[in-house]
Amino acid sequence: MKKVLILILISLTQTIFSQKITRITDLQKDKNGKVILQDENAIYIPIDIEIKPEFPGGRVKFNHFLDDNYKKSNKRPTIQGKLFATFIIERDGSLSNINVLRDIGHGTGEELIRVLKLSPRWKPGKLNNKEVRTLYSLVFPVQL
After folding, report:
1. Residue segments in the chain with a per-residue pLDDT below the cut of 70
2. Which of 2, 36, 58, 111 is the most buried (most CB within 10 A)?
3. pLDDT of amino acid 88
4. 43 strand-pairing partners
């Protein structure tokens, strides 16, 4: 019985304190089925918006930008792995809230944050022809 109560308490705590990411299913729609934007600061995920955010030149140029600007350390040549990061593409195309979710250490996460801060402005995502804040996820392979 104690285990069931603890499980319910943990589930309730997670639900109460979890961050809210706006989904189209959570929003109100007008008569024509178009989404009514109510909160200017809502953060959307790319699957829920009409026009996805894009790096100037596309995904291939973004990969070249990361490869060209990411400085590899010569200290330990046997390190390899993947960095997982998220960031928000603002309505003006700038990047904010850059977070490294999984880091392989030795300064690789800090270097990825530095490179993302150098990024030029993106084309922001759009919903109902209005720019919206969009959460973007990135997997970056590293081989040092």
Report:
1. 1-38, 73-77, 144
2. 111
3. 95
4. 133
Question: Which segments of the chain does DSSP mark as H helices, in order?
Answer: 2-17, 59-69, 108-117
The C-alpha atoms of residue 5 and residue 1 are separated, in whole angstroms, by: 6
Please, what are the domains in the chain? Answer: 2-143 (3.30.1150)
Q: What letter would DSSP give residue 36?
A: P
SS3 141: strand
Residue 16, phi then psi, degrees to nearest 5: -70, -40
Q: How many other C-beta atoms lie within 10 A of the C-beta of residue 125?
A: 24
Helix (H, G, I), strand (E, B) or coil at 60: helix
Q: Residue 127 forms beta bridges with which residues?
A: 130
pTM given for the model: 0.71
Amino acid at 89: I
Q: How many CB atoms lie within 10 A of CB 30?
A: 9
Yes or no: say if 23 and 45 are a contact pair by the CB < 8 Å rule: yes
137: helix, coil or strand? strand
**Cα dist. 113→49, 69, 86 in Å?**
26, 11, 10
